[in-house]
Amino acid sequence: QVQLMESGGGLVQPGGSLRLSCAASGSIININPMGWYRQAPGKQRELVATITSSGRTNYADSVKGRFTISRDTAKVTVHLQMNSLKPEDTAVYYCNANKYGVIYWGQGTQVTVSS
Questions:
Q1: Which of 86, 103, 110, 89 has the alpha carbon at shortest distance from 24?
Q2: DSSP structural state of residue 71
Q3: 84-109 pLDDT per residue, tens
């Protein structure tokens, strides 16, 4: 069993920045990869970014150059640095983890980009 808890969401003006964090607990060995997904109102959940234990990253085209995903040394915490935020980035952001093919999700954290 793996539990994921997101933090760092909130309200920010366009052009601003936020840093999301996701901490894994429980059976935390062999979690790979981890990532972030988001779901905007009325839309399907979509990939934002993923990162493997070796540091390989994958980003949605819409966030490339603006968002950066990273993992800590223990490889059980993942971060998402979000810069140059746009209103279309408004969504609930969900942490995701893969362990031996089993997918785990956090409860989500709200990110709102608005003036």
A1: 103
A2: E
A3: 999 999 999 999 999 999 999 999 99
